[in-house]
Amino acid sequence: MGNKIHPTNFRIGAIFNWKSRWLSKKFYRYFLEEDLRIREFLGVLYNRSGLGEVEIERSGDSITVIVNTAKPGLIIGRGGTGLTDLKKKIEAIIKKLREKSHYGEGKWEFKLAVNEIKNSETEAKIVAQNIASDLERRIPFRRTIKSALERMMAQKGVLGARIALAGRLDGSEMARREWLSKGKVPLQTIRANINYAQEEALTVYGKIGIKVWIYKGEIF
């Protein structure tokens, strides 16, 4: 069995940047836990709601969380009330972690920004979430992945796409793996702009794993 590497991690430093942009030798494990808890909280709160990648930047005593989403109105809310509430909740998570482990007890500043994803059909994470929603609503998996592939390939700038599912598909007794692809997806080319995501669909027969690759050309 071959050893696989995450397509995004394979290209970090070459064409992609880190999703967490900071460095602290003294508080590394604490800041890492903060990042994980923030992403976990947002993932649960906006599950299946067009949430893309969450980026976190730190500079001195300042923390900036950048939320990429296809539905910014859902987060911002009427008159910005949703954004204010979300900011307070994330600040409470950070404060609780810092009080528990007794670090970073001085003043710190928190900023929250929301970026809109213009075309959700070219964002692998959102496509995977949509497929998971369809599978949970018991739509046949072949119809789901075919329609998702057609929508992706119809978008400007998408040169290839691939979808892989694994689990008890359509309630079969034995778990299996099925995949479908269109165009080209050069996973070994480092300059290839591959947008990749994983998701899980919780069905009555168990979990179904979903992987999505979208190839958007080369970055020189």
Main sheet makeup: 4 strands, mixed
Tell me the CATH superfamily of the largest domain.
K homology (KH) domain
Spatial shape: globular
Q: How many domains make up the 3D coordinates?
A: 2
The CA-CA distance between the termini, in Å, is 32 Å
Quantity of strands, as a count: 8
From the 3D structure, determine the CATH topology of the largest domain: GMP Synthetase, Chain A, domain 3
Low-confidence stretches: none
Indicate the structural class. alpha/beta
- Beta-sheet strand percentage? 25-35%
Any idea of the CATH class of the largest domain?
Alpha Beta
**Mean of residue pLDDT?**
93
Note the run of SSEs as H and E. EHEEHHEHHEEEE
Helix content: 25-40%
| Radius of gyration from CA coordinates | 19 Å
Question: What's the CATH architecture name of the largest domain?
Answer: 2-Layer Sandwich
Major β-sheet strand ordering: 1-2-3-4
Q: How many H/I helical runs?
A: 5
Structure write-up:
There is one protein chain. The protein has 220 residues and is α/β, with parallel strands linked by helices. It has two domains: 108 residues, K homology (KH) domain (GMP Synthetase, Chain A, domain 3); 99 residues, Ribosomal protein S3, C-terminal domain (Ribosomal protein S3 C-terminal domain, 2-Layer Sandwich). 32% of the residues lie in helices and 31% in strands. The chain contains five helices and eight strands. Strands 1-2-3-4 form a four-stranded mixed beta sheet. A four-stranded antiparallel beta sheet has the order 6-5-8-7, covered by helices on one side. β2 and β3 form a beta hairpin. α1 runs antiparallel to α3 and α4 runs antiparallel to α5. The longest helix is centred in the middle third of the chain and has 21 residues. The mean pLDDT is 93.
